[in-house]
Amino acid sequence: MSPRVFARLRRVRFLRTFRGRLAALYVALEVSVLILAAMAMYFALRHAVTREIDQELSAQFAHLAEDLRETPAAFWPDRCRDFSAYFLGGVRVLDLQNRVLCE
């Protein structure tokens, strides 16, 4: 803090009394509790939303994987295109050597 700010705070009358300091401490404590509660809610909601998105993507992938298991490999590009048209985003199926099987 700069000396001017400190001098102004010394001139503030309510900070000279015990009740004034107690009130200021209470306000600071309540603000910090509210900030901590908001941060906890943010992280909890972010975790819940991320988990929900992951479950949705997993369900979509399970649908595509089941469809590809039942389809001969020659028709995989058509299935991938159909899947990309129905769901958001693109699809790329790779083998174990990271070669693209269909896109």
Brief digest:
With 103 residues, the protein is mainly alpha-helical.
Largest sheet: 2 strands, antiparallel
The helix/strand series, from N terminus to C terminus, equals HHHEE
DSSP strand content: under 5%
Number of H/I helices: 3
CA-atom Rg in angstroms: 30 Å
Estimate the global geometry from the Cα principal axes: rod-shaped
Q: What is the terminal-to-terminal distance?
A: 60 Å
Helix content: over 70%
**What is the typical, i.e. mean, pLDDT?**
80
pLDDT < 50 runs, ≥5 residues: none
How many distinct beta strands?
A: 2
Q: Helix/strand-derived class? A: mainly alpha
What is the strand arrangement across the widest sheet? 1-2
Written description of the protein model:
With 103 residues, the protein is mostly helical. It has a domain at 1-56. The protein is built from three helices and two strands, in the order H-H-H-E-E. The chain has helices spanning 3-11, 18-70, 76-86, and strands at 93-94, 100-102. It is rod-shaped, with a radius of gyration of 30 Å.
